[in-house]
Every structure is written in C-alpha cells, then in structure tokens.
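Each record in this resource describes a single protein on a pair of labelled lines. An example record follows, reproduced without changes.
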Amino acid sequence: MLLKRISIAIIFVLSTVLIGLVGYLIILLAGNFAIDNEKLVMSATTSLVDEEGELLTKLYIENREIVSIDDIPDHVEQAFVAIEDARFYEHQGIDFRAIGRAVYRDILAGAKVEGGSTITQQLAKNVFLSNEKTWLRKTKEVMIAMNLERKYSKDEILEMYLNRIYFGHGAYGVQAASKLYFNKPVSELTVDEGALLAGLPKAPNSYSPISNPERSKQRRDVVLSVMEQRGYITAEESVRYKGRTIAVDHNKITENEAFLTYIDMVLEEAERKYQLSSQEVLSGGYKIVVPMNQKLQQSAFERLQNDDYFPDGNEGAEAAAVFMDVETGGVLAAQGGREYVRRGLNRVESKRQPGSAFKPLAVFAPALEEGDYGPYSMLRDEPLTYGDYSPRNLNGEYSGQITMYDAITNSTNAPAVWLLNELGVKESTRFLEHLGLDIPDKGLSIALGGLEEGVTPLEMAKAYRVFAGNGKVVDPYFISEIYDRNGELVGRANQTETEVISPQTAWYMTRMLESVVKEGTARSGNVETPLAGKTGTTTFPGVEGGTMDAWFVGYTPTVVGSVWMGYDTTTTDQYLLGGSSYPTVMMKDIINDLDDPLKNVAFKKPDQAEELLPPVRLAQIEDLSAKLQMGGGGLMSVELDWTGSDDERVYYHVYEIYKGERERLATVRGNSEYIVSRFNPFSTKQYEVTPVDSVTNQEGDPSNRAEAEFNFGFGF
C-alpha cells in the first residue's frame, strides 16, 4: 500500500514537471498564434415586436440575447467562477494548479473524473476548435486561451463566455437562459437562481429544471456549497438558499404557426429594402418593429383553417388573406395559405384572375376620373360584340340601360365592357400602372378581370387602398423600423403617398362599393363596421358552373384587405363549387374581430368632395284614380290622384290615352295630383302616370290606367 502511494506521488511530481515544461514552451509559442476575431462575434436573437413594443416572436439560429457584463449581477458572475474556474482572476488563461489536481485525481481514480479547463480555455474551445480529442487540439486550446488573456480583460472574457455557453432547451447565453427559465432579465436574478444557471452548462439536459427538477436542485446546491467555500456567500446564506424550491417560470418562445407567412415576408423585405440576408437577420440580434395586428393575424389564420368557410366538397381548397392599415400602408396581417410552409408557396404574392373585383380599378374609377361619367350616368346594358369578344351578363338578362351605380352594385358585365370600350384600354392600363398594377393585357377582357397573368392579393389590397385613402396610393410594408444589436436605427418604412385620383372620385367609389356590401353581390354574411368592397368570381371553362377563383376585396375606414379562394391548379377534378360569397363571409368575420380604434369608425367624406346621394328608386304606382268634377277650364274636369314618392328627386309624367294614342299632358313636380281641365263626358279616355328619376331622367314603369267616366251623382 505504501509502495503504491510512493509510486503515485512520483508520477504526480513527474507529471507536474512535464506539464510545467509544456506550459513554458506554450508560453514561448503562444504569442505567435493568430486569433480570428470575427469568430468571437456571436449570433444573437432577433426580436419581432409590434408598434406598442410587445414581443411577438423571436427569430434566431441560436436563441441568444447579448448582455453586457455590467448588467450581470456580481453574485451571478461569482456562481460561474466558483463552479467553473475558481482561480479565474489569478491565472493567465491556463491554471497549472488545476491541471495538476485533475491529473492527480484521474490517476487515483484510474479514469478521467475532473477537467482542468479554465473559463478562457472553454471559450477558446467553443469559438475556435472542433470537438476532436487530440493533444494537438488541446495544445491549440491552451495557446488560444493565453492569447485571449493577453488581448482581452477578464471582464471581457467572462462576458463573451457567459453570452456564448449553452443552457439547454435552445437557449444560448445567460440572458436567454434567464428569460427562458425565470421569465426575467439576468439583472434581476437572485443568488439561488444564478447558482442554478451556473450549474447547467456542465450537462444542460441532465440538470434542466424543466426536465429534471430534482437533479437541477441537487446541482444548484452543489454550486451554492462551492460559492460558500470560495467566500462568496456565508454558510448561513448557503443554508437558506438551499432551502428554497426550484421555482421555474418557463417562458419558452415558441414559433406561432399563425405568424409564419408574416415572418417570411419580413425576411424578404429586410433583404430587398435593407440588404440584410435571412442569415444575417436570424443571427444579427436586430429589433424589428412590425405593423402586425396580433389579433387580426390570429383571426385570419383560424378562419383559413376552418372548413366551414369553404363550399361543401372544397375542404381541400386553398386561400390567402392580407390586410393593410389604411392610414400608413403597414401590413396588419398576412396568411399565404391554409397549410403554409416556411419559404414555400406564398399565395399572398401569387397571381390569380381577379374577376369582377377588377372592375372598379380597370373601368369605373378611371371613367369617373376622366370626368365624362358620373355615378348615375347611364351605361349600355346589351349583349354587344366587340370583334371576336362577346361579353355576357351571368344571369342572361339585360335592361338596355343601367346606371354606373347599379352596374357596380349588381356586378353587371355588359356595361363594364361597354364603358371600357368608350374609355379606351390605353387609358385604363395607364391608370392601373399608377396603382402598381403593370399588366401586359391590351384587350377589353380586362374589364372583367380576365388577365393573362393575373394579380396578387397584396396588389389588390394596395390598389383598393386608393379609394380608402382619399385617392392616394401608398406602398405596403412589413417593417416599420429596424434596429441593430446596438440599438442604432438601420431604416424605417417609407409612408409617402402619391395622389392617383381625386378625393371626389375616391369618395364616389366608396359610396358605390358600400352599396355592393349592403344590397349587391357582397350581401352575404354580417359585418359590424362600415365596409365597402367588391366581389370577384372567375368561371372555370372546363366544368359548367365551376369556379376557378373567388375573391372579396374591400375596406373599412381603417383597414383594407383582400381574401382569395381557389386551388393552386384548377382541374376538372378540383374546382370551387361556390363563388365569391365564401371569401366575402370570411372577410367580414375577420373584420368583426377588430378591436377599437380600428372598429366602429364611420367613413369620413373628404372636405373637398361632394356627397353622393343615394340612387333614386322609382316605385310602381298602382293606385291612380280619375275623378270627374264640375268646373275647371271647362264645364267638367278630371282630378287625377296617386300616391307619390317621399324622394323630392322624383317627378311625374301624366299621359292621356285616347283611341290607342298616348299623349303626354304634363310634367308634375313636388305633387302627386293633377287636374285635367277640359273633359268631354261623351268620350272615353284613360290616364296613366309614370315616375321619372330627375338625376338620370329615366322613366319608371307606367301606373295602372284610370278611366274617367260620366257620373250622374253630381248632386244637382
């Protein structure tokens, strides 16, 4: 037994001498070993926050938040130094005493039981070296550690170490770990909480307070004991802290599936506008302020997942939705598909056929702006042919003439194409370019949204914003502001507006598009705030009654958006079994989830615009009566009487019918009676009254015919 101890002692002395010689050689050589400083730059987590400063999600390759050594409490630093490198402030990168002690204990145990690496060595290994276990790697580790000590202060080395090490569950660095396990910054950690974190790097999974709370407590208590031995805390404090339970406030940042489309579009914009690659954003520690409305983003996501919003039999159909802030152009919500895949097909940016949702943009707004047409101008509603193009109304009915107001409300095809033909395709496409819609099409089919390439939901939302924005267009954006890891502003969104149409045209369009929602093709569903918009449906020629694309594009006084439904590829086996009523209902339900101040706001007429009065609706007159009376312009006269309209814009034409001939006797305004001053009692005459719209000068249907007959009950 004595011989064995002597042998061990001799081996220990020889090993120490050998280590000393090696150390001396290392000291001589270390000064020439170069350090790649770029490798010391750590990946940091980028935070996405809303405009109120609330954290939405984190973007990272490694979940790390860089923290200054000045913000780390002394007792947290002491916990790490005590358990990892007790002589940290005394050695110059390597601790020969610790190495000798480790070798001695390894020899006694006959296996490796204790490491001798300093904090500086651990930093060197994590940053610059692989995990291979060779003498050459160990030598490099020591050389780099010594060079780090020469170049950086102890505080700088400890700061790099504490920001780099892994703490389990995806958290890198002491700040991310503090927020993960205790839901607070490292500056607020107590002594026992700091001790718990200090115990994790040795085996993060084994000592995790989430996965293994008992082992985590045991490890924490070991750290507290070592802190007491090193004089950082008293024995009494150690006992008190060990008596505390493990109180973890788990704050895991999970990637909300509802945010995936929006995150991708943020990354795309960062690269396009600010020349920041996705890799840089995910590792650069940026703070990105986004205009996302969390509630709207979540609502749109949930609606897209719900089969009830799709026609029966179309549970596998796709959809996309995007919403912008009317005032700023900031994108409030974006969903690129029902089962959106990161960096995959984003249907918010996929071109589709817009159908009748294109009519306000390609036809009606530019016609109003040109000045020759107004909301109540009469348009031809006939089945006309233009070369080889023969547009038809879906219901097969034609009225001959129809107001622009009613053509928009009822989405009548023939008048839209006729008006575009009068306006000119060139004028229409010029206007569309100002809206950001640069299409190659040159035919009249653009009036009905039959486009060669199509348009995206985001483009449609941007274009409709011109109506909500009093005639001005603004570019949508996903990044309001972006700051680097040092808090310096990298850039902010350009919210510059460009006037495309007059406020008057914009207001007329708003009033007419409100009518679409209240009494037209967008009546389906219920909405709790003022809404203007237009439906769009494109038929699938392969199947009678089949639909290829279904849309609703619209806006409230605060939010403009578009919803599209369809299949990525429409075939005879997969096509929509319903039309635009489905995206209309979805849009309304999403909007109903808005909170104040985005909800319950009325449309406000621009100061420089005139109000658009509601259209004149001519009622059928069915109670015309003709009464004989004495006097008048002759011996006898006829008093005509009927129920008139409350609308003062309605006047009446009075007709007399005699022997099959119809003669207009008078025009009556502001009254609902008329006296036929001369009447021959020996002739048989009939009378009828026709209401007239003073705005369009269009006659309504004639009344019932009333006949004035000789009546002997005069009371002579």
Summary: The first helix runs from residue 2 to 30. The chain has a mean pLDDT of 88. Residues 2-30+62-242 form a domain with the Penicillin binding protein transpeptidase fold fold (CATH 1.10.3810.10). The chain is about 35% helix and 15% strand.
